[in-house]
Write a structure and sequence with these properties.
The complex is a heterodimer of chains A (about 325) and B (about 325). Chain A is α/β, with parallel strands linked by helices. In chain A, about 35% of the residues lie in helices and about 25% in strands. In chain B, α6 packs parallel to α7. The two termini of chain B are about 35 Å apart. Classes of the chains: A alpha/beta (about 325), B alpha/beta (about 325). Chain A: InterPro entries: AAA+_ATPase, ABC_transp_ATP-bind, ABC_transporter-like_ATP-bd, Oligopep_ABC_C, P-loop_NTPase.
């Protein structure tokens, strides 16, 4: 499981925001994901994690960099070649209310994916396949004739997952798949994703801001800040021994549902807000909020280096 | 300690096209002076409607307060004329809303929004109110308050807007602060800043707090006592320790088990609560949770259980507890 199945190298996505200003949403990120692995991507809103997910699946055209799926550079593919690759990589979206067409039945929403890739030889076959898929994610076959508004948030997210599964992908980008759901429903969806992965061997990029869910879900975790990856490690290592000061602050900021742990905990409270990605600080992007920043941090951008075997961080003092 | 707020048998409904949504169904609780009480529950459980009813912010119609009373410092609020209610709002009870992006007036400067309440309720002069507004912004940790005071909400980031909201809510030293999901729209590092701020302010001013949230982590951090709501009813109350260490209602237990612990591995599956909450247009005849409950018995479907007292502070509304009294057999209370 050690060789790279998905390989991201020097990926950048810049947006033009007028007046010759450029927003560097994703600014030179690199990582790999092995087959069957789950890589968690965490960070606060505006750090570029969703843009990264969308650029990897080429919903956005990358500004530069390479995204390869089992050795083939996806960013170089023509439109028709890309379609074939879309069968291999799919996406599950954050908002189960906005990502399903309200005027289509569930049969057509899922069937459309089969049609586009020519996976259903006949109407009867198409219907049977949709019903099979619905049962796979814990919905009823009879649900196929209904419309999205007849379902709750958790059920809609299951439909979004079914649509991604329909084309039998290998790699799935999950962009905050549970953040719009109630706590008691979140666990249902997480268990479903893990169960599907065990049965079908999916590779996941799991994007979220809920650190305890990411830790639970992922084999390795990458932490993003202002368009860059600041730390990447196996999930236990990251949570047990965070090296980057931002990771430390992020971990200490999560309130734990345990009154005794909460009382004992020393919380690192960062001052200030996230700087604007249009005008990021010089040197280290985190230095304006970092409790241990020095003059060197303003002048020199820290390299992303291996601080312990398998644990990478970009901080001069990590 | 004095009781600041006493809510008794409150029921609130909304008349909508499909029928009557019974959002709050017979809720009773009290908040003592200086106490921080959390109301937890998922969306649609009635926690926000309860808070808005206390402040009389429910628009009628479609809303309708069907029964009950809300006494604040001995005074009944539900029958108060609107004019007098305005004196209570902002002055004696402050409120922080969930969404800092939409709950400030975009056409007024931040300073003016803080000064408005001070001039109206405390009859301060314009210059005194301005001085106090600068003090308040300093207190909630906004840098350069002197220049920030003349800026508009769109100049502020999300965290700063929420700080400004807190400054407004605290401007008249309210005896009770209601915070409705105050940090849900914010990132964790900003959330940590806001929670620390609220905690410090409570220590300094001795305000009572009602904190409405779905995040049990925040409850563990901030509150003394917890009220758990489900399908418009209170199903369990207790001190923070009782609720986290010894929850008795199957819903409370389920909620705590469905969260991953930081030391939990992927091979230990989460224990979700199956199913979805009931439709409150046709609320269940019996216990609201019974269709999702693993221990549901026949009686659960037909009759709403009364509260069982487990200690001076912990109460639970579940038939499993009542059966311990003897007549209705069946075990499972210890599960």
């Amino acid at each position: 499981m050690s060789e790279a199945f998905v390989e991201i190298q020097g990926l950048r996505k810049y947006f033009n925001v007028g007046k010759n200003r450029v927003l560097k949403a994703v600014n030179d990120i690199s990582f790999t994901i092995a087959k069957g692995e789950t890589l968690g991507l965490v960070g606060e809103s505006g750090c570029g994690k969703s843009t990264a997910g969308r650029t990897i699946t080429r919903l956005y055209e990358p500004t530069s960099g390479r995204v390869s799926l089992s050795g083939v550079d996806v960013t170089k593919l023509s439109k028709s070649q890309l379609k074939a690759y879309r069968r291999r990589m799919q996406m599950i979206f954050q908002d189960p209310y906005a990502s399903l067409n309200p005027r289509m039945t569930i049969l057509d929403i899922i069937g459309e994916a089969l049609d586009i890739h020519g996976l259903a030889p006949s109407r009867a076959h198409r219907k049977r396949r949709v019903e099979e898929l619905l049962e796979l994610v814990g919905l009823n076959a009879e649900h196929a004739s209904r419309y999205p508004h007849e379902f709750s948030g958790g059920q809609r997210q299951r439909i979004g997952i079914t649509r991604a599964l329909a084309v039998e992908p290998e790699f799935i980008v999950c962009d905050e798949p549970i953040s719009a759901l109630d706590v008691s429903i979140q666990a249902q969806i997480i268990n479903l994703l893990i169960d599907l992965q065990k049965r079908m061997g999916f590779t996941y990029l799991f994007i979220a801001h809920d650190l305890s869910m990411v830790k639970y879900m992922s084999d390795r975790v990458a932490v993003m800040y202002l368009g860059k990856i600041v730390e990447l490690a196996r999930s236990e290592d990251l949570y047990d021994r965070p090296h980057h000061p931002y990771t430390k602050a992020l971990l200490s900021a999560i309130p734990v549902p345990d009154p005794d742990l909460e009382e004992r905990k020393e919380r690192i409270v960062l001052s200030g807000d996230l700087p604007s990605p249009v005008n990021p600080p010089s040197g280290c992007p985190f230095r304006t909020r970092c409790p241990i920043a020095t003059g060197r941090c303003a002048e020199e951008e820290p390299a992303f280096r291996e601080v312990r075997p398998g644990q990478w961080a970009s901080c001069h003092y990590a | 300690m004095r009781t600041m707020l006493e809510v008794n048998d409150l029921s609130v409904s909304f008349d909508v096209y499909g029928g009557e949504v019974q959002a709050v169904r017979g809720v009773s609780f009290s908040v003592k002076e200086g106490e921080a009480v959390a109301i937890v529950g998922e969306s649609g459980s009635g926690k926000s409607v309860t808070a808005q009813t206390i402040m009389r912010l429910i628009s009628t119609p479609p809303g309708r307060i069907k029964q009950g009373s809300v006494r604040f410092d001995g005074q009944e609020l539900l029958s108060l004329p609107e004019k007098e209610m305005q004196r209570v709002r902002g002055n004696q009870i402050g409120m922080i809303f969930q969404d800092p992006m939409t709950s400030l007036n975009p056409t007024m400067t931040i300073g003016m929004q803080i000064m408005e309440g001070l001039m109206k309720h405390q009859k301060m002069s314009r210059s005194d109110a301005k001085k106090r507004a600068i003090e308040l912004l300093t207190m909630v940790g906004i840098p350069n308050p002197e220049s920030r005071i003349s800026q508009y909400p769109h100049h502020f980031s999300g965290g700063m807007r929420q700080r400004a909201m807190i400054a407004i809510a605290l401007s008249c030293n309210p005896a009770l602060l209601i915070a409705d999901e105050p940090t849900t729209a914010l990132d964790v590092t900003i959330q940590a800043q806001i929670l620390r701020l609220m905690k410090n302010l409570q220590k300094q001013t001795g305000t009572s707090i009602i904190l409405i949230t779905h995040d049990l982590g925040i409850v563990a951090d901030m509150c003394d006592r917890v009220i758990v709501m489900y399908a418009g009813q209170i199903i369990e109350t207790g001190t923070k320790r009782e609720i986290f260490r010894n929850p008795q209602h199957p819903y409370t237990k389920g909620l705590l088990k469905s969260l991953p612990r930081l030391d939990q591995s992927k091979n230990e599956p989460l224990v979700p609560i199956h199913g979805t909450p009931p439709d409150l247009i046709q609320p269940p005849q019996g216990c609201g949770f019974c269709s999702r409950c693993d221990y549901a018995m026949r009686i659960c479907q037909t009759e709403v259980p009364e509260f069982t007292r487990l200690s001076d502070t912990q109460q639970v509304r579940c038939w499993l507890q009542q059966s311990q009294g003897g007549i209705r057999g069946g075990k499972g209370a210890s599960a």
